[in-house]
Amino acid sequence: MPRPIQATIHHEALRHNIARVRASAPDARVWGVVKANAYGHGIERVFDAMRAVDGFALLDLQEAERVRALGWRGPILLLEGVFEPRDLELCSRLGLWHSVHCDEQIDMLAAHKTQVPHRVFLKLNSGMNRLGFAPQRYRAAWARLDALPQVEEISLMTHFSDADGPRGIAHQLRVFNEITLDLPGERSLGNSAAALRHAADPAVRGDWIRPGIAVYGSAPDYPEHDSAHWDLRPTMTLASRLLAVQALRAGDTVGYGSSFTATGPIRIGVVACGYADGYPRHCTTGTPVLVEGVRTQLIGRVSMDMVAVDLTPVPQAGFGSEVTLWGRAGNGALLSIDEVAHSAGTLGYELMCALAPRVPVVVAD
Ligand SMILES: *Cc1c(COP(=O)(O)O)cnc(C)c1O
């Protein structure tokens, strides 16, 4: 028998979340962001449930090939554009739209021989200072692209650094609107946080929103808001079982480094899940976990293959009991991946993406 750990991808939740983000910007089209192998879910595993999007956005050309291989004929956008000249051949062959964020990418396009002119998303650096043309250089880049026979259509794109926080997006939106004011072309500005928090403004919605994390059921602005606040459902469950039970007395310690010491008698369960499965090693005593759908806490350090949990609230639990590390328990109880991530000082994004290859994954409706 394999180790009892398993991840489940929930199609019903993916469908619900897509409908939910679409409702936040009803007149915009939706890029389903499936970079990083659909945030660790697996592109092939989410594809059927995500067909309701208008296009798929990703980074990796191999991932684009996988989406085409699944039979998707609609738009696919390379969010970082091409990395070298021959990538443009694949764009021509597979009909990929690509971001253009620097002069080198325009040089490559100018040298590219193609029968099929490309659709590009010209990226403005409106303040994030990651990718994109500086405001004073943006219009020159637009004019250069516009003059190329290799380019059929130019869309306008930017990305917000603080859509999830107190600084907000107004300063970047002002730059984007000023620079693009009279330029033709479709516009794409917002990720999940912008779509959920700021899309009441039609200028933020633009023509395409680019939600990633919200599709996967995480609140983009946790802990200010949780997934229940945004009516998002978990799309990934990580579950395992108890391998062993230990009865401790006062003074007994648990795990490597003896970071937990029992102050009195306590039953603990040992779970078949550790950091080699993608469970964050930074989680400490107190991190929430569900045993048989009952909320309890982690105890001691996370080791490579195991972690210990407090069985005090679930005295009936024993060998083989169900443990939910995040997601949905058999009894319907939920444990947000955001809450677990927060306990490890990170984000739901990182936990999803870090699900280890050794964990078997199943798809459920
Ligand atoms: C990853 C990414 C997104 C999606 O962001 P979320 O916060 O997951 O919604 C949108 N746009 C770009 C350019 C990205 O790289």
From TrEMBL:
Residues the record marks as active site: 35 (proton acceptor), 256 (proton acceptor)
Pathway field: Amino-acid biosynthesis; D-alanine biosynthesis; D-alanine from L-alanine: step 1/1
Annotated GO MF terms: alanine racemase activity; pyridoxal phosphate binding
PROSITE patterns to which the protein is assigned, alphabetical: ALANINE_RACEMASE (PS00395)
Record carries keyword Lyase: no
Highest taxon above the source species: Bacteria
GO biological process, one term: D-alanine biosynthetic process
Chain sites annotated for binding substrate: 130, 304
One Pfam family cited in the UniProt record for this chain: Ala_racemase_C
Enzyme Commission numbers on file: 5.1.1.1
Entry-linked InterPro entries: Ala_racemase (IPR000821), Ala_racemase/Decarboxylase_C (IPR009006), Ala_racemase_C (IPR011079), Ala_racemase_N (IPR001608), Ala_racemase_pyridoxalP-BS (IPR020622), PLP-binding_barrel (IPR029066)
GO cellular component: cytosol
SUPFAM superfamilies per the UniProt record, alphabetical: Alanine racemase C-terminal domain-like, PLP-binding barrel
Keywords: Isomerase, Pyridoxal phosphate
Catalyzed chemical reaction(s): L-alanine = D-alanine
Cofactor(s) this protein requires: pyridoxal 5'-phosphate
Record-annotated Alanine racemase C-terminal domain positions: 235-364
Modified positions (N6-(pyridoxal phosphate)lysine) in chain numbering: 35
UniProt similarity note: Belongs to the alanine racemase family.
PANTHER family noted in UniProt: ALANINE RACEMASE (PTHR30511), ALANINE RACEMASE, CATABOLIC-RELATED (PTHR30511:SF0)
Record function comment: Catalyzes the interconversion of L-alanine and D-alanine. May also act on other amino acids.
Name listed for the protein in its UniProt record: Alanine racemase
Organism: Caenimonas sedimenti
Gene field: alr
